[in-house]
Design brief:
GO terms for molecular function: transmembrane transporter activity. Its main location: membrane. It is found in: Cell membrane. The chain crosses the membrane at residues 33-51, 63-84, 90-109. The protein is mainly alpha-helical. It has one domain (3-107). The chain has helices at residues 3-25, 33-56, 61-84, 90-107.
Amino acid sequence: MTRSSSAWLLGGAVVSEVAGTLALRVSDGFTRPLPTAATLVGYGVSLWLFARLLDRGGVALGTAYATLTGVGLAAATVASVLLFRDPLTVVQLVGMAVLAAGVLVLQTGPRPS
């Protein structure tokens, strides 16, 4: 698998997972049908894309999962601040920077053959 196709699969998994998480926030405990459906579709598509990524090889599970969760966490945090006016502290920003550094370190490691 090319690095580009791996990036597209992983990026798509992140985007759909974050979309599902944002929909979860407005689903009111799965009582609102449209946000509930969007949550399930978002998570389902994310898992499907992530499974395709792993099936095609070229990315280690730990690296792929750390990237999915790390980038997803950062994106969901930023989106929640912008969309829902959730607070963001300096300590949380430092935590996101540490998380980003960890994902970067994992991404620069050796790739499986």
